[in-house]
């Protein structure tokens, strides 16, 4: 499994957010696709078609699980170290309800 830091994720990157709905509602990356980890196997056809897909959760644990599973399915994915906690600490943009909050 490959990990990347938040600073390695381009600001305009499409990422997969596997957090729960309440976590997503609190703020997410601007180009994120939201598929909670528990729904991933049944919603795999909704994954964006990109060369390499960064996967994020709150701190990196659930996204690591998602990355391991998605790699087994043949997807080119990377785990975002530190998750959305690191994203927010780095001052990267967060959206909530279509509005920018950071």
From TrEMBL:
Pfam families assigned: Rhodanese
InterPro entries on file: GlpE_sulfurtransferase, Rhodanese-like_dom, Rhodanese-like_dom_sf
Keyword NAD listed: no
Top-rank taxon, per record: Bacteria
Keywords linked to the UniProt accession: Transferase
Domain spans labelled Rhodanese: 9-96
An MF annotation (GO) of this entry: transferase activity
Entry-linked SUPFAM superfamilies: Rhodanese/Cell cycle control phosphatase (SSF52821)
Protein name: Rhodanese-related sulfurtransferase
């Amino acid at each position: 499994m490959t990990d990347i830091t938040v600073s390695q994720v381009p600001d305009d990157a499409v990422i997969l957010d596997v957090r729960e709905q309440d976590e997503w509602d609190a703020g997410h990356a601007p180009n994120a696709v939201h598929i909670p980890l528990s729904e991933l196997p049944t919603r795999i056809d909704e994954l964006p078609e990109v060369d390499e897909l960064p996967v994020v959760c709150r701190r990196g644990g659930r996204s690591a699980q998602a990355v391991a599973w998605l790699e087994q399915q043949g997807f080119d994915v990377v785990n975002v170290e530190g998750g959305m906690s690191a994203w927010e600490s780095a001052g990267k943009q967060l959206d909530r309800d279509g509005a920018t909050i950071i």
